[in-house]
Task: inverse folding
């Protein structure tokens, strides 16, 4: 026996009216209605089930009431916890809390992400709990707030306000700054709110000024990065100036106007030293850190390469006689060491900037989340931080305002710009009953809606999570590059040493100089960074670009497989078609008008919930036909319905119904067959025992289906339609969509087998369907593409999720994957080619034949720009038109 | 002539040394402590590499690796466990926990964002 989560009824699996697959679990339902309700919002029912379970097993929860009776003085506090990903995290936190002095009982619930602590207020303070949670490695869902305070003029005021704040229940931290006249407060939204906090401050006699609009929260990580970037920039500028002087001094044979003292070895030494050891210090630091771990990286190459040039030059400066004795004119290469460092620094600066841009899409998504919401509580409108919005709250949205969380419109009408989430550029009309998505912008009217998803459950939060995961995944194409970059640096060092030895032994005079220069050039030109950056940057930009357009790609692997697809299978209902039948034809007979037929049919069906009935009622309402209540309504299983409207007896149903009631349909039958041949469902209607006409209903194509199919065919993919409909109906619809191949009469559970069949023919199959009913087929396909509906974004079985139902998204997704893979291939080719060509060139293979030797300075420029070019190439994906 | 010989011998030895040091020398390894809560935990310091860089864990038990990045050097700003589909930024001077449950025995390589710093996770 299974439990129907919607109505609570016990259902036998084999007798259930239907089931839904959600998160790899089957849920059975007593009726279709229950199933639909569940499919609309499965989480809600799962959650309420969870709650019920918790109630059944009270020992799991801390029961506050009896505990309070036992120990009157103890208090209870709920702390929301952020970042728990498993049940074991919960026990870690719980242990940490329970060990604190004054804590009687601590319970951390993983499902609700909450810690409940029972404590003695005179022995323990809530802020201790928070630091304990943080010590365990998790964040507390506190809200921080900065309030400007007026009227403070002494240090004692500060203490007074701080004390008042800390005595307020739920406030975990309060710091008042006299100089900025601001109070920084952290509080638990479940325990208190802005109102109470303001009240606490005002009770001390000071005034709280109105909240400054959306003050940016400082991101410490960003600050560190920015500081680093600034430091790097300063170093680069200083290095550039010094390097330029070294360069001029070393090249007096080209620049005759340069004063002779600048060419002095000691002066050059003095100028090059800060570049080597101050500006280049990070390379030494990095190289040493890696060396200790028996690793070698870029820093190793740069540090060793430049040090070789520098130390050679120092020796030449201090002991010129040593070289002269060997018959070599002492020469210094301070310009080489200094300029290499400066150029590589420039490369790093550019790379840091470009790398920052690769994650711009996700930053943009994160920046979308609204800060405050205007809710109605206890009949009053109030602004609260969005973190405090609860499921079920009624929220008011004004024209131009941001919709704070996901919900359902209760009252009012407006147009909403959803482009930031769905990629749809035209505003969508919203009226009562429609779903709204958090972070979208209300354009015209104002409306009220009820919050259905908050916090990490909102569509936006799920999208961010999906994109983050995708950007973290690896594409299989990267494997070779990964293996190589692991061995790269030590091998390059070996090649450089070998180069040195060969030049020293076989090179022309002065062999030592040639050996040194080629050694440095090989070390400096090698660029494993380009190899390492080739794929991840492209995947990051590609998935980010997809997200902007409402296409969520699960990861690098999906992206890579999508470009290899040769077959696309569409599920019919709800994917190619709207999934809601519509009236397509009305045929009249015996002098009845279309309006009359509609009026009687719709009135008769007024209280019916059958999809065909809904189509008729919808059309009648569109035509503003007044409906009357039916009497003696009777549904005849497998035939249709009978009812009385305005005293007239109405029959509505199939031919069997007409025949049973001995109604003469005459030429209607011929017409009906014709309609059926077009994939429509004809229904006969009779009034007072006389045939009155036909109403044909059909599931119509989505407006963009035809276009999407045509584009996919143009891309060289075979398009197939999969449906449970009979062959005739299926072929009719397929014809309209421009699809040549149909797999009709496929039972829902056989969809998987059809996909397997196609795969066994050697095809790479992409399956497009809705994420709930088609989940097994989506999972079986090489790439499962789920058509999203509204706010349910995290489709488990799919590789790609299209947030809006537009099938052109399938084309965009495939195009995007093709473009991304193309960029990755270009990047990898460039990185491999660059290194395999660059290293021998730097080693001087061309010298014996053409007398060409690569100056190490050019080698460093090439190195610096090869990694920048890879990142820049990936950034081109941002401009792809989808 | 002698100079050439010295340079050649020295060069060959150096190449051998470099390859031995980076590829074949013994690395520091650490086994995970199993805590009472049933998770295995290892603290790893990230500074030019991973310390320890060989981590031994038991299969089927949740693992938490606490990466503390003790530098601002760009190279180590991301940690990648390709086999577990994990790629996470490591903020400088902060501990970033990485959690997963290894279900299969074997050796899994973890690397920095570019694959140059590496460590090994051995699941037994």
Result:
């Amino acid at each position: 026996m299974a439990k129907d989560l919607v109505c609570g009824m016990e259902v036998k699996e084999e007798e259930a009216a239907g089931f839904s697959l959600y998160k790899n679990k089957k849920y059975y339902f007593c009726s279709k209605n229950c199933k639909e309700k569940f499919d609309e919002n499965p989480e809600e029912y799962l959650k309420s089930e969870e709650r019920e379970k918790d109630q059944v097993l009270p020992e799991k929860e801390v029961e506050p009431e009896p505990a309070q009776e036992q120990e009157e003085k103890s208090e209870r506090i709920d702390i929301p916890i952020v970042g728990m990903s498993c049940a074991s995290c919960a026990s870690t936190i719980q242990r940490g809390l329970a060990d604190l002095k004054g804590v009687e009982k601590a319970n951390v619930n993983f499902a609700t992400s909450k810690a409940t602590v029972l404590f003695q207020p005179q022995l323990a303070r809530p802020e201790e709990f928070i630091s304990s949670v943080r010590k365990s490695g998790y964040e507390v869902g506190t809200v921080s707030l900065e309030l400007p305070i007026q009227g403070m003029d002494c240090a004692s005021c500060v203490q007074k306000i701080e004390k008042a704040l800390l005595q307020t229940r739920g406030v975990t931290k309060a710091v008042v700054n006299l100089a900025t006249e601001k109070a920084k407060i952290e509080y638990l939204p479940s325990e208190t709110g802005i109102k109470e906090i303001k009240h606490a401050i005002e009770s001390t006699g000071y005034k709280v000024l109105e909240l400054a609009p959306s003050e940016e929260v400082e991101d410490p990580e960003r600050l560190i990065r920015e500081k680093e970037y600034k430091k790097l920039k300063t170093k680069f500028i200083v290095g550039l100036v010094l390097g330029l002087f070294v360069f001029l001094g070393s090249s007096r044979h080209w620049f005759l106007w340069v004063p002779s003292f600048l060419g002095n070895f000691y002066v050059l030494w003095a100028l090059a030293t800060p570049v080597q050891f101050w500006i280049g210090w990070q390379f030494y630091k990095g190289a040493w850190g890696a060396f200790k771990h028996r690793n070698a990286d870029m820093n190793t190459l740069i540090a060793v390469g430049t040090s070789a040039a520098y130390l050679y030059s120092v020796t030449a400066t201090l002991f010129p006689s040593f070289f002269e004795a060997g018959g070599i004119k002492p020469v210094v290469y301070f310009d080489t060491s200094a300029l290499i460092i400066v150029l590589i620094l420039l490369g790093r600066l550019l790379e840091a900037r470009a790398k920052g841009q690769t994650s711009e899409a996700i930053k943009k998504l994160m920046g979308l989340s609204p800060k405050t919401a205007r809710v109605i509580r206890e009949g009053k409108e109030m602004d609260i931080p969005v973190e405090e919005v609860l499921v079920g709250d009624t929220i008011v949205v004004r024209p131009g305002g941001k919709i704070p969380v996901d919900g359902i419109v209760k009252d009012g009408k407006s147009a909403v710009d959803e482009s930031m989430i769905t990629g749809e550029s035209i505003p969508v009309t919203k009226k009562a009953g429609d779903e709204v998505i958090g972070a979208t912008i209300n354009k015209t009217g104002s409306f009220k809606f009820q919050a259905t998803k908050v916090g990490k459950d909102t569509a936006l939060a799920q999208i961010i999570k999906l994109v983050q995961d995708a950007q973290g995944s690896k594409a299989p194409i990267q494997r070779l590059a990964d293996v190589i970059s692991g061995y790269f640096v030590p091998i390059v060092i070996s090649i450089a040493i070998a180069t040195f030895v060969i030049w020293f032994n076989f090179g022309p005079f002065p062999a030592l100089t040639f050996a040194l220069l080629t050694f440095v050039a090989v070390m400096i030109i090698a660029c494993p960074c380009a190899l390492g950056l080739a794929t991840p940057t492209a995947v990051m930009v590609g998935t980010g670009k997809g997200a902007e357009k409402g296409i969520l790609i699960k990861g690098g692997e999906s992206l890579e497989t999508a470009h290899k697809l040769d077959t696309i299978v569409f599920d019919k209902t709800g994917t190619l078609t709207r999934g809601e039948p519509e009236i397509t034809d009305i045929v009249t007979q015996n002098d009845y008008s279309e309006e009359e037929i509609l009026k009687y049919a719709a009135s008769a069906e007024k209280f019916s919930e059958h999809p065909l009935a809904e189509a008729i009622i919808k059309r009648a309402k569109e035509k503003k036909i007044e409906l009357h209540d039916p009497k003696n309504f009777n549904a005849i299983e497998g035939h249709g319905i009978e009812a009385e409207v305005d005293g007239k007896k109405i029959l509505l149903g199939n031919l069997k119904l007409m025949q049973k009631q001995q109604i003469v349909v005459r030429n209607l039958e011929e017409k009906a067959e014709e309609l059926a041949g077009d994939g429509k469902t004809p229904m006969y209607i009779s009034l007072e025992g006389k045939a009155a006409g036909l109403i044909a209903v059909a599931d119509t194509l989505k407006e963009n289906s035809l276009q999407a199919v045509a584009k996919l065919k143009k891309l060289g993919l075979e398009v197939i339609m999969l449906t449970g409909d009979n062959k005739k109906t299926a072929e009719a619809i397929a014809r309209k969509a421009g699809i040549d191949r149909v797999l009709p009469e496929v039972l829902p559970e056989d969809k998987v087998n059809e996909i397997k069949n196609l795969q066994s023919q050697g095809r790479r199959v992409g399956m497009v369907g809705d994420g709930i009913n088609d989940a097994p087929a989506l999972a079986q396909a090489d790439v499962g593409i789920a058509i999203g509906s509204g706010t349910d974004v995290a489709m488990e079985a799919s590789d790609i999720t299209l947030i809006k139902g537009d099938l052109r998204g399938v084309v965009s997704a495939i195009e995007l994957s093709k473009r991304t893979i193309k960029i990755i291939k270009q990047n990898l080719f460039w990185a491999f080619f660059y290194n395999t060509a660059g290293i021998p060139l730097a080693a001087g293979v061309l010298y014996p034949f053409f007398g060409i030797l690569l100056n190490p300075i050019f080698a460093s420029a090439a190195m610096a720009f090869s990694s920048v070019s890879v990142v820049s190439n990936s950034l081109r994906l941002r401009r792809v038109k989808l | 002539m002698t100079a050439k010989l010295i340079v050649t011998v020295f060069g060959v030895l150096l190449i051998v040394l470099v390859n031995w040091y980076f590829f074949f020398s013994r690395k520091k390894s650490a086994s995970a402590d199993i805590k009472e809560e049933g998770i295995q935990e290892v603290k790893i310091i990230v500074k030019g590499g991973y310390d320890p860089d060989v981590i031994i864990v038991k299969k089927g038990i949740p693992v938490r690796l606490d990466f503390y990045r003790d530098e601002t050097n760009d190279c180590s700003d991301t940690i990648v466990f390709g086999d577990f589909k994990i790629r996470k930024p490591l903020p400088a001077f902060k501990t970033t926990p990485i959690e997963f449950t290894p279900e299969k025995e074997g050796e899994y390589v973890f690397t920095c964002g570019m694959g140059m710093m590496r460590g090994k996770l051995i699941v037994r």
